[in-house]
Amino acid sequence: MSKTQTIVVFSGAGMSAESGIKTFRDVDGLWENHRVEDVATPEAWLKNPNMVTKFYNERRISIIEATPNEAHFAITKLESISNVDIVTQNIDDLHERAGSTSVHHLHGNIRYSKSSGPNQEREYYRIDGFELTESDVCPEGFRLRPHVVWFGESVPAFENAAAILEKADVLIVIGTSLQVYPAAGLIDFAQNAAHKFIIDPKADILSVPDDYRRVSAKATEGMLGFFDEIKNMLSDE
Ligand code: OAD
């Protein structure tokens, strides 16, 4: 079996839903219970950094306590038959903990912090415990903030992610409502992909071009049902 083909997985919050991590826009999703502008914008940080820090500390705790689900593991297993690159909108590290080796975070990684000063993207600092506190500062003395992209901020990882999507032979979009830009626009870069799939319970109504195969299922069911098929597909080519 050749490893000359590249599968690119583009994942969103639904990927981790079966690990017990809340999605954003489903019923009882995070944005139903929190106002975005209070916790996930640069303005919120300026106004009330403690509240923002607390919100992300809570997210970090639930992520650390969660474990990868069968869909994360199935994606890791794809590495035995193909090159696999994951571009994730998720700030959790469940792909990595499932053993995937090439994971690119578009919206940051909750296990890390960064300076709230002018050199935010220069360095990311691993957070050892569950919490960031008021006294955590970068070497230049600015308070550390979570390494996440907030609404209204640019997405520094976008360009690299677009280059990855361009190289996809197979694209698997999984667990994302494709409502947040620029992230959702990334799928337009997968022009060379001969096979494109979207796995999501709402796959039938999500906005993707006609050449996508729509798999209306949860991430685990969708990925497991799909594994042998994708394996056969790659070995036939
Ligand atoms: P959303 O909450 O917008 O969408 C979650 C998607 O997951 C929906 O399409 C659901 O149908 C689907 N879903 C729910 N349960 C699922 C399951 N068990 N298996 C598979 N799919 C399931 O989340 P995202 O599209 O990831 O950004 O949201 C994108 C961005 O918006 C996030 O990265 C975050 C958020 O605001 C930032 O924080 C910058």
CATH topology of the largest domain: Rossmann fold
Which whole number gives the mean pLDDT?
94
Helix content: 25-40%
The fourth-level CATH homologous superfamily of the largest domain is TPP-binding domain
| CA gyration radius, whole angstroms | 18 Å
Strand order of the largest sheet: 3-2-1-7-8-9
Second-tier CATH architecture of the largest domain = 3-Layer(aba) Sandwich
- Could you say how many structural domains there are in total? 2
> What separation lies between the terminal Cα atoms?
10 Å
Instruction: Point out poorly predicted stretches.
Output: none
Heteromolecules bound: 2'-O-acetyl adenosine-5-diphosphoribose
H/E element order: EHHHHHEHEEEEHEEEH
The coarse silhouette is globular
Strand % is 15-25%
Specify the CATH class of the largest domain.
Answer: Alpha Beta
Short description:
The protein has 237 residues and is α/β, with parallel strands linked by helices. It is 30% helix and 19% strand.
